[in-house]
Amino acid sequence: MKTSLPRVLHLLPHTGGGVGTVLRAFFKAEMETGRYTHSVITFETINEASKTCFKQLNMAWLETADDAAIAAGIEAAELVVLHWWNHPQWMRILSQGLPACRLAIWSHVNGFHTPQAFFPELFDFPDRFVFATPASFEAPVVKALTPAQASQLAVIVSNSGVPPGADKFCHKTSPFQAGYIGTVEPAKMHPEFLSMCARAQLALPCLVAGGPAHQALQAKAEQSGLAQQFKILGPLSDPYAFFQGLHVLTYPLVPEHYGTGEQVLIEAMAYGAVPLVLAHPPEKALIQNMETGILAESPEAFSEALRFLAEHPAERERMALAGHRFVLENCPIEKTQSQFHQLFETLLGLSKQSRKLALPEFNGVERGSPFHLYLTACGDSPERSAALDFLAEKDEPEKVWPPSFVYLTRGSPVHYLNLLGADPVLERMRDRFVSRPELASFGARS
């Protein structure tokens, strides 16, 4: 049966991780308002949690869609929301062009660091470019935008609302417990994570929940003689029980991390755990230092802050209460809905237009090739310079190569090669770097 409600199509690579959690909460809330009809198309798989949600909400969805299905979905929608992070298929699809549409890009990365940095051409593509954190305004490429480009920017903070059972503050009466939960891999966790926590000399082992590289972290702890100070749990099926037993979330990320709101920080505050983080821009946009958590300026300061929180329960309780209050006041899903509705109303006032991503030229690089798309997505970055040096065979023995060259996904050279097909330069990069896991391992310095 046809509906007169405006149809909003959400395009994204997949529905895993925090993005899927945020979208499911948003769609559930939207079903109650009845102002828009939402559908989802992905070019990878949709996880079971999202499929169950979509079925319960009677939403239309399509996974592993080909180009024709994506184009048909765009043409049938009044509005399109493209959920952005640097993914090879996005670069291929955008460079080929989209049918006429009203388009907003909602970025789920902060845009500071390659391979998940913003690049200038991306901001000319949509009708509106929406950040998931106000920290993105400080990204170098954003600060260099023209006034006309900057006028099309907006912010809708990424969160899934107040978590279930968090309406009342969770008082912690058990012995002090610190821990980390989230993605466990060198691309996300600070390389000194183990020593940063161990220096605090806590009475109980620090918990670590999540994957996929939890076994590598366990091996590193044993190699460093720190295994007794950590309990590495691997992925958990019930993260909420974990939070409710946690006093402090020890969450130091690499400076180059690509996260935005970090849903885990909101969940920690909601369940009365004080977030202890390093003072990177996205964390600074969310945490009020010494009020709702602690922003440490260095690994040494992180260790001192962790010890402080263990030894000062009154201060810890004060910050935990403030963090809980912050979530209740600032993170209701209705606030996210209101911001999206304002965005949708603005877009509905525009005409549909076709669009195609502009690609810069590079000497000696085949236009539209996977390597060309990779270079475009890198923007004006050390990774682009290093890739062009590699193309020119400037491979001196002492040269320091970017750690991201060894990644298999996350917009790395090998990711582009694996998904977009044969490319002689990317094949040489794979052969040169994938055999060097030390470039991106726990304890490596980037």
Descriptive overview:
The chain folds into three domains: 7-161 and 332-355, Glycogen Phosphorylase B (Rossmann fold, 3-Layer(aba) Sandwich); 178-330, Rossmann fold (3-Layer(aba) Sandwich); 370-440, no CATH class. Helices cover 39% and strands 14% of the residues. It has helices at 17-33, 48-56, 67-76, 88-96, 140-143, 147-150, 193-198, 214-223, 239-244, 263-270, 281-286, 299-311, 313-330, 333-348, 370-378, 382-391, 413-420, 424-433; strands at 7-12, 37-42, 60-62, 79-84, 98-101, 103-107, 128-131, 153-155, 178-181, 206-209, 230-234, 248-250, 274-278, 294-296, 353-355. The protein has a seven-stranded parallel beta sheet, with helices on both faces. A six-stranded parallel beta sheet has the order 11-10-9-12-13-14, with helices on both faces. A two-stranded antiparallel ribbon has the order 5-15. Strand 9 (178-181), helix 7 (193-198) and strand 10 (206-209) form a beta-alpha-beta unit. The termini are far apart. The mean pLDDT is 93.
Blueprint (SSEs and pairs):
Layout: E1 7-12, H1 17-33, E2 37-42, H2 48-56, E3 60-62, H3 67-76, E4 79-84, H4 88-96, E5 98-101, E6 103-107, E7 128-131, H5 140-143, H6 147-150, E8 153-155, E9 178-181, H7 193-198, E10 206-209, H8 214-223, E11 230-234, H9 239-244, E12 248-250, H10 263-270, E13 274-278, H11 281-286, E14 294-296, H12 299-311, H13 313-330, H14 333-348, E15 353-355, H15 370-378, H16 382-391, H17 413-420, H18 424-433
Parallel strand pairs: 1-2, 1-4, 2-3, 4-6, 6-7, 7-8, 9-10, 9-12, 10-11, 12-13, 13-14
Antiparallel strand pairs: 5-15
